[in-house]
Amino acid sequence: MEYIYGKMRGALFASLFLLLTTYAYAGSGWEKYGNEPVLGGGDMGTTFDICVLKTADGYAMYLSWRPKKAIAVSYSKDGKRWTDPKVVLDARPESGWEDHVNRPVVLFKDGMYHMWYTGQCSKKGAKSSKIGYATSPDGVNFTRVSDAPVLVPEEKWEDVAVMCPHVIWDDSQKIYKMWYSGGEQYEPNAIGYAESADGKVWKKSAKNPVFKNNPNCEWERERATACQVIKRKNDYLMFYIGFYDVHTAKIGMARSKDGIMNWERYPNNPIIQPTPDGWDAEATYKPYAVFDGGDCLLWYNGRVKNLERIGLAVHKGEDLGF
After folding, report:
1. What is the per-residue DSSP string for 255-289?
2. Which residues make Cβ contacts (< 8 Å) with residue 130, sequence separation at least 6?
3. Residue 25 to residues 41, 52, 88, 251, 270: CA-CA distances in angstroms?
4. Within 10 A of 210 (CB to CB), how many other CB atoms are there?
């Protein structure tokens, strides 16, 4: 009898936990699309850390494709049903720093697609991550701008890795602005900032890292990293990952007047978190949001064990209350 009561109490606790986490999640105004990922798994394997561009016909998603050690592109008319990925940038082990390529950001400027990406060396005793630069006239056939990376770890806080670049073109200042992550190879620790006139030569901010975890906030107590930054009329909006520990991650928002310092966190963080027993039950990572048709669509990768896949969350209306 005690065993039955114990099972009932366990089931009641699990239901209550699900209700509370769902309520907290709903409080941010974000709603996950369905109960399944929109891309990845099966024969495709792990797909993760993406960038999404709005196109004339829908969307183009540039993604990290772990089994291929490469960056690929997939297309969708509605953001929910995606084509099979096509590799657009392969690994290049002979370079000495690109055993794997992943974590891309792509922007379209002056008739060309510009991609900044992470190259990773996985050799024992020499693990590192660096950022490279490639361009393409069609968004599919990318050519590296140089054999060397354009950003490398050289500051103490960057340790062995700079990765997860997010780049925008600031037309008023005529410069590229990059937010990147630095620190450990498995999961970086904090976010830095750099500027460039040509996308190749970058000057890092003397104030780096410009965004770190809040150790007093339990859900991001361990580290904060891998952001997307959107320039708005009066400020910069950041979507970022907060880590409770190196394996448990959720997604939050912050804003800053200049995109560099004095970041203010959204009071209802986290906005996206794992769903118990779901396909993203252990971690939700690497957000990428697009404002479109009056709504905000946010894609992210979720993990269970070693499998990561891409999901979608939607915020009705472009006013995020922040």
Report:
1. EESSSSS--EE-TT--SB-PPTTSTTSSEEEEEEE
2. 97, 118, 119, 149, 151, 152, 153, 162, 163
3. 25, 23, 35, 11, 7
4. 20
Helix (H) or strand (E) holding 16: helix 2-26
Instruction: State percent of the chain over pLDDT 90.
Output: 89
Measured distance CA(307)–CA(89) in Å, rounded: 22
What type of residue is 215? Answer: P
Strand-pairing partners, residue 98, are 92
Residue 128 · residue 97 · CB < 8 Å: yes
**What would the pLDDT profile of 147-184 be if each residue is shown by its tens digit?**
999 999 999 999 999 999 999 999 999 999 999 999 99
Longest dimension (CA), the chain: 72
pLDDT, tens only, 103-151: 999 999 999 999 999 999 988 888 999 999 999 999 999 999 999 999 9
- In the chain, the domains with their CATH numbers are 2-315 (2.115.10.20)
CA angle (302, 308, 310) in 5-degree steps: 60
* pLDDT of residue 61 exceeding 50: yes
Which residues on adjacent β-strands are paired with residue 74? Answer: 61
What is the mean pLDDT of the segment spanning 84-109? 97
Amino acid at 94: E
Strand 307-315 to 112-121 pairing: unpaired
> What's the rounded Cα separation, in Å, for the pair 256 and 144?
33
Q: Would you call 15 helix, strand, or coil by DSSP?
A: helix
- Using the predicted structure, report yes or no on whether residue 11 has a pLDDT greater than 50: no
CA separation for the pair 70, 87 (Å, rounded) = 7
